[in-house]
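[agent] plan:
  1. take the single chain provided in the ticket
  2. run structure prediction with default settings
  3. attach structure tokens to the ticket
  4. add a short note for the reviewer (M.T.)
[agent] executing step 1
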Amino acid sequence: MKQTVSATINLLEKLREVPDPRRRQGKIYPLDSLLAMLLLAALNGESSLRGMVEWGRQHWRQLQRALGFKLGSSAPVYGTVWSVLAALPAAELAQALRLWGTEAILDDTEALAVDGKYLRGSKRRASQLTALQIVSAAAQEIGLVLGQQEAVGDDSISATVQLLQQLPLDGKVVTLDAGLLQQEVAATILQKGGPIWDR
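[agent] step 2 finished; step 3 output follows
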């Protein structure tokens, strides 16, 4: 699906709804502009925060006006971005992105794929904690993740139900991993308007 200008503007509006944890005197860079820069860097293949900040520095001239940074300002450094993200309410950011995804994309997709997985690199040898397990939902036509939910205590079924409850499923086809095909999950899909087929 081709990304539209209106969808991009809508994303910036959603990012403005994320609460800024900084004090007024600490707001050199607008929060929505910083987040938009990081998202653009990720979409261009950067997978680490340091890589995203460096990508932003390399493209700073093009990003300043387009993303609402103050003209003439210098690109943010790694420490500045890290401190902002460390204090950022992650749940609020995830909700803003989820709302943008459902509004700008979900209307144009007919099928969602729900998949559970363990995040690579989340298990540390020195830690007694298990690897982080999440359940994600993606728009099948474009492969874009619309939401994800942590499976606390490896309870992927409850995580799937929580994730599905956050998405509009009216008329959508939902495909699932075999391990997620449980009665509670199916009932949630039906309650949310998912279609029913008779054999």
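[agent] step 4 note for reviewer: Residues 110-191 form a domain with the Nucleotidyltransferase; domain 5 fold (CATH 3.30.420).
[agent] ticket updated
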